[in-house]
Every structure is written in C-alpha cells, then in structure tokens.
Design brief:
Helices cover 85% and strands 0% of the residues. By secondary structure, it is an all-alpha fold.
Length: 20
C-alpha cells in the first residue's frame, strides 16, 4: 500500500475541514 500517496490527499482534506 502506498501511504505516501494517500498522505497528501488526507492533508488536503484535513486542511479543507480546518479552513471551513
């Protein structure tokens, strides 16, 4: 499993939730 590729996606999702 490529966690490195999922990490950036999870960060963007978290940032979106934090910004909202």
């Amino acid at each position: 499993m490529a966690l490195v590729e999922l990490f950036p996606e999870a960060i963007q999702i978290t940032q979106h939730f934090l910004v909202h």
